[in-house]
């Protein structure tokens, strides 16, 4: 059972890394930031269009490993319709999950596929990189953020 769950998680990650959702430049974005993970060579630029206090559109571009791409892809789906406050709270839950494998939030949806990442400490930064970029974008920092 546990192995089947592992397989399912891997399938979701593979699917999102091979066919990333919202993989494009977003010219209408009013918040953007680039995240770099020098350890793995991941580079993700995140675009957010915020209107009326909520994310209307989210997109990303960049190069990276399967984990960072899948994480960015799922992030762009997860933050749509959310307020910056809700995204910060979500980041807290995702961070807890990828570092401990556990979460106190029952509402992570597809993001739960990254729970297995905690067993591979080197990949934690890959999974969390797009989230660092999202937070930097929300704070209005246009400069590059690095996981180092
Ligand atoms: Zn990576």
Explain this structure.
- The chain is α+β, with helices and mostly antiparallel strands.
- It has a single domain (2-146), classed as Alpha-Beta Complex (Sufe protein. Chain: A).
- The chain contains 4 helices and 4 strands, in the order αβββαααβ.
- It has helices at 2-18, 66-78, 84-100, 121-138; strands spanning 31-37, 42-51, 54-63, 145-146.
- It has a 4-stranded mixed beta sheet, covered by helices on one side.
- α1 crosses α2, α2 packs parallel to α4 (121-138) and α3 (84-100) runs antiparallel to α4.
- The longest helix is centred in the C-terminal third of the chain and has 18 residues, at 121-138.
- The protein is globular, with a radius of gyration of 14 Å.
- The site of zinc ion has 8 residues, from α2.
SSE arrangement:
Elements: H1 2-18, E1 31-37, E2 42-51, E3 54-63, H2 66-78, H3 84-100, H4 121-138, E4 145-146
Parallel strand pairs: 1-4
Antiparallel strand pairs: 1-2, 2-3
The CATH topology annotation reads as Sufe protein. Chain: A
Q: Which stretches of 5+ consecutive residues score pLDDT under 50?
A: none
Order of helices and strands: HEEEHHHE
Distance between the termini: 37 Å
Main sheet properties: 4 strands, mixed
> Helix/strand/pairing class, anyone?
alpha+beta
Name the CATH class: Alpha Beta
Read across the widest sheet, the strand sequence of neighbours is 3-2-1-4
- CATH architectural arrangement: Alpha-Beta Complex
């Amino acid at each position: 059972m546990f192995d089947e769950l592992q397989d399912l998680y891997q399938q979701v990650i593979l699917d999102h890394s091979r066919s990333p959702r919202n993989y494009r430049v977003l010219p209408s974005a009013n918040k953007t930031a680039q995240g770099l993970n020098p350890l793995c060579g991941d580079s993700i630029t995140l675009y957010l269009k915020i209107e009326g206090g909520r994310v209307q559109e989210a997109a990303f571009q960049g190069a990276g490993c399967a984990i960072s791409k899948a994480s960015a892809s799922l992030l762009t789906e997860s933050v749509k319709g959310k307020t910056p406050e809700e995204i910060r709270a979500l980041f807290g839950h995702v961070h807890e999950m990828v570092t401990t494998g556990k979460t106190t939030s029952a509402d992570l949806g597809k993001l739960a596929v990254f729970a297995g990442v905690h067993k591979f400490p080197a990949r934690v930064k890959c999974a969390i990189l797009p989230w660092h970029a999202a937070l930097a974008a929300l704070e209005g920092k246009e400069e590059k953020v690095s996981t180092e």
